[in-house]
Design brief:
This protein is an alpha/beta fold. It contains 8 helices and 19 strands. The protein has a 5-stranded parallel β-sheet, with helices on one face.
């Protein structure tokens, strides 16, 4: 473990698009800064499904007016990785990759002590831009820890000719179901609600509805998995329990921010089911002086409220507040 003697103006936790935006803004205003990322550059984006297409158009994903040129109106994952990597490299941003932040001690209101997997740092200000993709919403059912169960989906080829259950009705679940079906998988969707989610990408929603109606993809609505077994699942439906033969289960039921990390820093979290962290909307500063939030983490469990396109502005708001002091 290395202890760094330098005190930074700003340490940014999270090297995703919003963390990068904060780094660009800090550099522009000559602040001493460091971005700490526990995985690779734009780690969450890297772990998105291989064939993912963004909901937003490329210009809405741009940072600092740097053009994002895409082959299609809506860019794919590979294009986004290329874009954000080029920004980080060409602007020589100070980023430490594969260095996980373990704790932030803010007992001294003017200095924050940051402990990581590789060292210790001090900083006058901290931005938390860690997103929400690291912790799945577990169902807490028997068999959820079996090897055939996954909370993340990558590539459809793996599921060809396999009986695959997809749980959920959001964008990730719908994309997975359609892709696996088109690669020869036997797909069954389990949906807790009466229909496919209204927030599913508008050009994809009719596709999944038509595939279900024609019987290409089976679907059980108002249904939940009661238990996952080695070769089957037990399903609770309005008509009673059903047993379905099964090879793989994709539990694509959404993700949540690391609330324990925020609480340990001293950030207040709302007591309701939304779990929204406390912060000043004018400055993005939390109830802990000098600690700011940026990006989707601001929404708590309402992970659909913030995206790259509407939280890019957080970088400018935060840096403006820091330099005003």
């Amino acid at each position: 473990m290395q202890t760094h003697n330098k005190t930074y103006d700003l340490i940014i936790i999270g090297g995703g698009p919003i963390g990068i935006a904060c780094g660009l803004e800090a550099k522009k205003h000559n602040l001493s800064y460091l971005i700490l990322e526990k995985g690779c550059l734009v780690n969450s984006l890297y772990h998105y499904p291989a064939n993912m297409t963004f909901f937003s158009t490329s210009e809405k994903l741009e940072l600092d007016n740097i053009p994002f040129i895409s082959n299609n109106p809506k860019p794919r994952k590979a294009e986004a990785l290329e874009y954000y990597r080029r920004i980080a490299v060409s602007n020589e941003l100070d980023i430490n990759l594969f260095e996980k932040v373990i704790s932030v001690d803010s007992k001294d209101k003017s200095i924050h002590n940051i402990k990581t997997s590789k060292g210790n740092y001090t900083s006058k200000n901290v931005i938390i831009a860690t997103g929400f993709y690291d912790i799945p919403n577990y169902l807490g059912i028997p068999g959820e820890d079996l090897p055939k169960v996954n909370h993340y989906y990558n590539d459809p080829h793996y599921y060809a000719k396999q009986k695959t259950i997809v749980v959920g009705a959001s964008n990730s679940a719908v994309d997975a179901a359609l892709e696996i079906y088109r690669k020869g998988g036997d797909v069954t969707m389990i949906v807790r609600t009466p229909e496919i989610g209204q927030r599913v990408k508008y050009w994809v929603r009719p596709d999944i509805i038509n595939r279900i109606e024609e019987g290409s993809i089976k679907a059980y609505f108002d249904a939940e998995i009661a238990e996952i077994k080695e070769t089957e699942i037990i399903l609770k439906t309005a008509e009673g329990e059903k047993t379905l033969e099964n090879d793989f289960v994709l539990l694509l039921t959404g993700y949540r921010p690391n609330f324990d990390f925020l609480k340990n820093i001293g950030i207040n979290i709302s007591k309701d089911e939304k779990h929204i962290p406390e912060y000043n909307k004018e400055s993005m500063e939390t109830n802990v002086p000098g600690i700011y939030l940026a990006g989707v983490i601001c929404g708590g469990m309402e992970t659909h409220k913030w995206f790259i396109e509407n939280s890019r502005i957080h970088a400018e708001i935060i840096i403006k507040d820091i330099i005003s002091r």
